[in-house]
Amino acid sequence: xxxxxxxxxxxxxxxxxxxxxxxxxxxxxxxxxxxxxxxxxxxxxxxxxxxxxxxxxxxxxxxxxxxxxxxxxxxxxxxxxxxxxxxxxxxxxxxxxxxxxxxxxxxxxxxxxxxxxxxxxxxxxxxxxxxxxxxxxxxxxxxxxxxxxxxxxxxxxxxxxxxxxxxxxxxxxxxxxxxxxxxxxxxxxxxxxxxxxxxxxxxxxxxxx
Length: 209
Description:
mainly alpha
C-alpha cells in the first residue's frame, strides 16, 4: 500500500476522534511511516500496518471507538527494536503524548495507550476494542498459507542475527503458545474467518523439520 491510501486512513482515524489535520498531525504521519520503513524490519513494516488497517475497515462496525482502535494500530509497532523488551511501552507512551499534542483529550489518549499495551503477547485483552485490536494484530496467523509462509520468512529476517539452533526452538515455543489458546481469536467474526486456518498454519510451522 502506498502513502496515499495510508494517508487517507490516517485522516479518517483523526476525523473519527475529532482531531484536526494540522501541520503537527501531518508531521506525525511522516514520522510514523518512516518508522515502519526502518531497514531492520522484515515483518513489522508498512505492509503489516496496511493489512491491519484494511482488516479494521472490514470490522469497523464492531468497534466501540473505531478512531481510537485505528490510532492504536498506527502506533502499535511504531517503536520496534528487535532485541528490545519495551517496544509496546515505548510505542504506547509515544502514542499518548503525541496524540495529546495533536489535540486528542487526555482521557482518549490514555485509552489508546492502553490499547497499544494490550498488543503485548503476554497481555490479556480487556474489553471489546482491545479484543478486536489484538485479533487484527494476530490475524496474520490465520492468513492463507502463502502469506503465512512469507510472514515466517519476514520474521526470520528480523532475527537473522540469531543462529538457527537458538531461533528455531524458541520460534516453535512461541508459536505453540498461540496454538494452545482456546480460542485463539476473541472476536466471533475474526474467529470464524481465521481460526481454522491459523491452527493449520501453526501446526505446520511447529512440526516443520
